[in-house]
Amino acid sequence: MKLLRIWACFRLIFVLDCAQAEYVVSVDSFVFDPIDREVVLSQSATIEHVGNRSYLSGHLYLGRAVDNLIALGSLEISRPKLPRVRLFNSKFDLCGFLKNDYKSKFLQQFHYRFVTFTNVRPLCPLKPHLNYTLERSYLDERILPELLPECSYFLNVEFLEKAKRLAEMHISGQLHPVNKKKGPKNHVKL
Ligand SMILES: *[C@@H]1O[C@H](CO)[C@@H](O)[C@H](O)[C@H]1NC(C)=O
Ligand SMILES: *[C@@H]1O[C@H](CO)[C@@H](O)[C@H](O)[C@H]1NC(C)=O
Predict the structure, then answer these.
(1) Residues at CB less than 6 angstroms from ligand 2
(2) What is the structure's pLDDT at 181?
(3) For the chain, what is the radius of gyration of the CA atoms?
(4) What is the CATH T-level fold of the domain 29-178, as seen in this structure?
(5) Are 70 and 148 in contact (CB under 8 A)?
(6) Could you identify the atom of ligand 1 that is nearest to the CA of residue 51?
(7) Closest atom, ligand 2, to C-alpha of 131
(8) What is the mean pLDDT of residues 129-154?
(9) Most buried pick, 20, 106, 159, 164, via CB within 10 A?
(10) Record's SMART domains (predicted)?
(11) What is the β-pairing status of strands 23-34 and 164-177?
(12) H-helix or E-strand spanning residue 13
């Protein structure tokens, strides 16, 4: 899968160069838009800024059980005076992600960060009439690969049950590398 290939490539760079990776990642916008309101009965998405960190919280309350969850995710970055670049645009099996089936270390880390901040571990089928909450989750900047450029990022995820669209999520913000190291540019092929 393309997504996994990209993360695998990032991981390689990360392993070679992990000591230097330091970023401040801020989230400016976190929006969760229900599309099917018979399935998504109630939800919220909020950001809290403390120091250099953005904490995301929210809840999701479903009207019926949901299985076969698929996410269509795209990540784009933009830098001053350069065209927007799409890093990936891929489909992935969210039920597999929730079970932590992905072999990618990056996705496993991401999974670990995500489940740490939920009240119950979400697994497919997602249960109806259970208030799934996410409490002050944040990205561990240390899991990011080295040599990402200073940029704005735009993450869009569409959630589907098989082919039925349930909701969309949009997260955007800024990535600032700190302690920039001198060295060859553009190790990460965008
Ligand atoms: C925020 O990050 C900057 C580096 O970009 C650093 O100089 C500053 O001390 C940090 N502030 C806090 C509150 O951590
Ligand atoms: C679910 O939990 C959130 C956060 O605690 C709360 O704001 C919301 O009202 C709850 N929703 C339902 C339907 O219980």
Answers:
(1) 42, 59, 61, 131, 133
(2) 53
(3) 17
(4) Ganglioside M2 Activator Protein; Chain: A, (2.70.220)
(5) no
(6) 13
(7) 1
(8) 89
(9) 159
(10) DM8
(11) antiparallel
(12) helix 2-17
